[in-house]
Write a structure and sequence with these properties.
35% of the residues lie in helices and 26% in strands. By secondary structure, it is of the alpha/beta class. The protein has three domains: 6-124, NAD(P)-binding Rossmann-like Domain (Rossmann fold, 3-Layer(aba) Sandwich); 135-295, 2-Layer Sandwich (Dihydrodipicolinate Reductase, domain 2), CATH 3.30.360; 336-414, ACT domain (Alpha-Beta Plaits, 2-Layer Sandwich). The strands form three sheets. The chain has a six-stranded parallel β-sheet with strand order 3-2-1-4-5-6, sandwiched between helices. Helix 3 links the parallel strand 4 and strand 5.
Length: 423
């Protein structure tokens, strides 16, 4: 039976919103399923585009948009408010919502999913993680028959651009970050990217999809990439590794292990081979093993494809049952090997002092690496340690940090080499 097309209202006409509208306009084959009726934007007169059909209503009145009672509202404004109030309003009146707003979902997904379920409508958010990569659909639909154990990946294209370029060129972080800002990969304030907040919010969404649990963003340990130096990549290469910002969550009975931050990964793994601003995510299941997804993680067209795909799914699943994400608890990580980098003012006894502090916490050394050619007053060297408990490692590093031979604070990175997906 032929049905009327879904009436779609668009909140936001920036990079992503404009790309969504362009797909809907340029694909007449979608006209019998999706019909763009309204575009909302502040200062809408400066946003009007002559390629948008005259039948579409442009407005800067949110009340006018909601008074039209759209079947679906696309929210690509971003931020917590007023976007959150608009999403709640849409769900309250029974409109389905498609959003790319990872920060809103990280903060309020359980509430919004519950509201959608009680109003008999849907909240969809394929575009909130990994841009145009069909990751959420792949996990929800393609891996529904498995019992998932771990989700890990490179979720922030800015950090991956910075770290993969440093790995290839041995440039310093400051210069590469400045170039990333000039090229538009990084914002003027890059904190959300380089300090792990963006990838953390995406990890919250992925944990909800994979495990149907809500992890609080503030509970996920996050480590900045700002402390990574060119020397770290030289030492990583000696270990057959490179460095990437990794976001990971894995089950441990009723609890979860989760973290976001730089880590050593094998150079030949999916993560190690991933370069530029692309995203790659690996899902490990009890029955099906590992499945990987990769592709453009950002950009208007890629993200808009995910938004339109969600809209099309609304036309096919009118009776889909809602979902709930009860709270999940984050526990300390399992024992892991670690890479420890020290920059010291060289003198006798430093290595024995560090080894003693590690031994006091029951931590075994694996290898000691020292590259030639560095000045004695800022000498970097690396110690790798066997798998150990993180609290013990932190206690040892606190003890070591009290010594007066440091030229820089010690750096500790997990080594994800035992379960890293192979390319």
């Amino acid at each position: 039976m032929k049905t009327k097309p879904l009436r779609v209202a668009l909140l936001g006409f920036g990079t992503v919103g404009g790309s969504v509208a362009r797909i809907l306009v340029e694909r007449p084959d979608l006209a019998d399923r999706l019909h763009l009726t309204h575009i909302f934007n502040r200062g809408v007169s400066r946003k009007r585009a002559d390629w948008v059909p005259s039948s579409v209503v442009w407005t800067d009145s949110i009340d006018e948009l909601f008074a039209s009672k759209p079947d679906a509202v696309v929210e690509v404004v971003g931020g917590l408010e007023p976007a959150g109030a608009w999403v709640r309003r849409a769900l309250e009146q029974g409109s389905a919502v498609v959003t790319a707003n990872k920060m809103l979902l990280a903060a309020h997904a359980p509430e919004l999913l519950h509201l959608a379920a009680t109003r008999g409508t849907q909240l969809r958010f394929e575009a909130a993680v990994a841009g145009g990569v069909p990751l959420i659909h792949g996990v929800r639909e393609g891996l529904a028959g498995d019992r998932l154990l771990r989700v890990s990946g490179i979720l922030n294209g800015t950090c991956n651009y910075i770290l993969s370029r440093m790995a290839a060129s041995d440039e310093a972080m400051a210069g590469v970050l400045a170039d990333a800002q000039r090229l538009g990969y990084a914002e003027a304030d890059p904190s959300a990217d380089v300090d792990g907040h963006d990838a953390g919010a995406k990890l919250v969404v992925l944990a909800g999809i994979a495990f149907r649990r809500h992890l609080r963003l503030e509970d996920i340990p996050r480590q900045t990439i700002r402390t990574i130096s060119a020397a770290d990549f030289r030492y990583a290469r000696r270990l057959g590794c490179t460095i990437r910002q990794i976001a990971m969550v894995e089950t441990d009975g009723p609890d979860f292990h989760a973290f976001v931050g730089p880590a050593l990964v094998l150079r030949g793994s999916h993560f190690g081979l991933n370069k530029g601003a692309n995203n790659v995510v690996t899902i490990a299941g009890h029955y099906g093993g590992e499945n990987s997804f990769s592709g453009a993680g950002a950009g208007g067209p890629a993200t808009a494809v995910a938004v339109v795909s969600d809209l099309l799914s609304l036309t096919q699943r009118t009776h889909e049952r809602g979902e709930e994400w009860p709270a999940g608890r984050i526990a300390p990580p399992p024992p892991r090997p670690y890479y420890l980098r020290f920059v010291v003012q060289d003198r006798p006894g430093i290595l024995s002092s560090i080894a003693a502090a590690l031994a006091n916490q029951g931590i075994n050394l694996d290898a000691v690496l020292q590259e030639p050619g560095y000045p004695k007053d800022a000498l970097p060297f690396v110690i790798t340690v066997e798998a150990c408990e993180e609290p013990a490692l932190r206690a040892a590093l606190q003890d070591i940090a009290r010594s007066d031979f440091h030229a820089e604070p010690p750096l500790a990175l997990p080594m994800l080499v035992g379960d890293d997906p192979k390319g």
